[in-house]
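Backbone-to-sequence.
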């Protein structure tokens, strides 16, 4: 329904590209970043194709809050909650965004 052709994250979500989901529900999936910037680097990705934070609609509120609550849960699952971690969105090219399907980065696990 929201599948956008040639979007790599849509292909991952639709299992056209094999990928291990660390968590999935009706709204989102979580998988490891292919080029990790830290010992733990997860991507929290809504199933709905949304280009970036700029493109969020009022109706997406539940998806966004679900992404953040999921980040909290994944931090605990990967045992970085106490040591600490970073959550970030890159927004558009100047903000470092390379994949134009909304995703929240979770990085942590440094010594
Ligand atoms: P952005 O710069 O758009 O915020 O982040 C995109 C992230 O997606 C990058 O950290 C990049 O390493 C990751 N990535 C790109 N292609 C793939 C892929 O095919 N599989 C996975 N698991 N991660 C990817
Ligand atoms: Zn997409």
């Amino acid at each position: 329904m929201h599948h956008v052709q040639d979007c790599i994250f849509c292909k991952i979500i639709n299992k056209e590209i094999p990928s291990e989901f660390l968590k999935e529900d009706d709204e989102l999936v979580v998988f490891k970043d292919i080029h990790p910037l830290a010992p733990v680097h997860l991507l929290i990705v809504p199933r709905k194709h949304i280009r970036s934070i700029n493109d969020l609609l009022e109706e997406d509120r539940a998806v966004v809050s679900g992404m953040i609550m999921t980040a909290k849960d994944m931090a605990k699952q990967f045992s970085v909650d106490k040591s600490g971690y970073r959550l970030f969105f890159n927004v558009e090219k100047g903000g470092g965004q390379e994949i134009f399907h909304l995703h929240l980065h979770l990085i942590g696990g440094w010594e």
